[in-house]
Amino acid sequence: MIKALLVYFSGTGITRYYATLIKDELEQRGYNCDCLNLEDLTDTAELWQKGPVALPYTIRAEEKRPLSNYPWPYQKLGAALKTPKENPLFKNLRQQWAGYNLIGFGSPVYGFRPAPVMIRFLLDLPVFKRSVRVFSFATHDGAQGDFETFMRQILTMKGLDYIGHLDHTFVYSASAVMRNSFDNLRAGRLLLKKSRLARRDINIFLSYVQSLFSGVPYLYRGQSYFSLLFGLPYRFFYSYGIDFLLNYFLFGFGIHKERCIQCMTCVNQCPQGLIELDKEDYPTRLYHCMYCLRCLNWCPTDALYFSRLTNGKARFPGPEALVEAAMQDELAKRLKQK
User: Fold this and answer.
1) Structural domain tally of the chain?
2) Residue 241 in this model has a pLDDT that exceeds 70
3) Sign of the torsion angle spanned by Cα atoms 15, 309, 278, 265
4) Domain boundary among 216, 244, 272
5) For residue 234, what pLDDT is reported?
6) 159: left (phi over 0), alpha (psi -120 to 50) or beta
């Protein structure tokens, strides 16, 4: 019997939604599966700030367009990978996770890498002396680059048996904050359509996983060499295009004080703990972050924005709202037909 654990970080809720799809498909096969949000396991802000590993686009933004005169002492990813240390906070995970024979680690893709808070967590994990089969899963807006290779590297480094990767594109949640409006119904229909495709891919992957445990050979083809080669120019232009967009149009932090109700939602929900209060008790951010968009999307009065490109634009309501819009529309159609 396979007993699985899914550990994930989710910025806008899409990766959390993907984790539920994987869990559902596992349980339909009769397997036991637990889902664990990284933020329920540990205080990600406190954990990350003790070793603030940052992705290249954040470091470049800090160098080109600092938000204050006190730049954050970010750690470059390459240096952090060379000096991983087991965090005493997680030393019991070896024993706590001993009952699982399959663990999945999931994150949105940021600059072809997991969220920095997930990277910090993975680097702080103890080395597992008993080989446990693990896989990675990711959500992205069209390009994940060598995300899978990175996850293989870091999980193998922790003594885990890396067996494969799942990923899917659902809806473009990141671009919502740059649109004049966001159509929940249209996005909800797309989400349900993509969910059916995701379930198909999950089932193919799980058949491969089952073969590993049963010893019955199963041919599993991941990304083909052709698609990898074809994707090189796409990933190149995508990477530099997004970097240009972020650095010149998105990076920053602004607030409409007349709208702010000082509810502290953004302060409390920042995964990196980089939003604080100024002298007037309004939120401010003095450092560049990973730009998960949570503060913008979760602000109840739309008081926050990053730059002129996001000022007065739409916000992503989360996958649950999209599914509800699509289901309500379907229900209305059925009632009309009666």
Assistant:
1) 2
2) no
3) negative
4) 244
5) 54
6) left
Q: What is the DSSP letter of 180?
A: S
**Does 303 map to a domain?**
yes
What CA–CA distances, in Å, run from 9 to 44, 153, 177? 10, 19, 20
Average the pLDDT over 249-277 and give the result.
Answer: 94
Q: What pLDDT, on the 0 to 100 scale, is given for residue 89? A: 93
Give the residue carrying structure tokens 């680690």: 105
The answer to whether the beta carbons of residues 317 and 260 sit under 8 Å apart is no
Show the domain range for 309.
252-319
DSSP track, 183-212: -HHHHHHHHHHHHHHHHHHHHHHHHHHHHH
Distance CA 71, CA 59 (A): 10
CA-CA distances (angstroms) from residue 326 to 86, 240, 313? 45, 35, 22
pTM (2 d.p.) = 0.92
**H or E segment at 166?**
strand 161-168
Angle at 41 between CA 35 and CA 47, to 5 degrees: 140
Q: DSSP string of 122-148?
A: HHHSPPPSS--EEEEEEE-SS--TTHH
So what's the pLDDT on residue 292? 94
Residues 143 and 289 in one domain: no
Given a contact cutoff of 8 angstroms between Cβ atoms, the answer to whether 93 and 126 are in contact is yes
